[in-house]
Amino acid sequence: MTDLAPGRPDGEAPRHHILSVLVENKAGVLARVAGLFSRRGFNIFSLAVAPTDDARLSRLTIVVDVESAPLEQVIQQLDKLINVVSISQLAPEAAVERELVLATVAVDAARRGEIIELVGVFRGEVVNVGPDKLTVMLADSPDTLDDFERLLGDYRIVELQRTGRIALPKLTRPAPDA
Length: 178
Hints:
By secondary structure, the chain is an alpha+beta fold. It contains four helices and nine strands.
């Protein structure tokens, strides 16, 4: 099982699972997937979709709330859709996860350096500058973005947008020679 909240102190079962779904890159496929989740009452925690290196395919990274339905049922229902090519479940310890956040923060000239320093500590970037606002960008793990967002809360956030999680399996490395 895939736990997106590793080391949960409450000992509860994981609530979220990451599914990487390859689908045919055709009009209406995303609507069919969303319709399936809606009809079945499955809750999507996060959804990201984009074409792959093969123009015929798109990858959907779906973070599923398994309290709304058993994971096996979600996978079985997805597998019935004609345009679904493959479905992989990704465990956090075996996956590289990233998410992107863009945030516009209102800040006067006296405190602008604080925001720039915070962005630098998180290896983010200032992507737009106005007279009394900055727009910043950070791409990292969802937990890191949560931390960044909490620290930005000390300032006046004008707008904030997160992309949703994307994930790929970690690459395997050959074992070192003994």
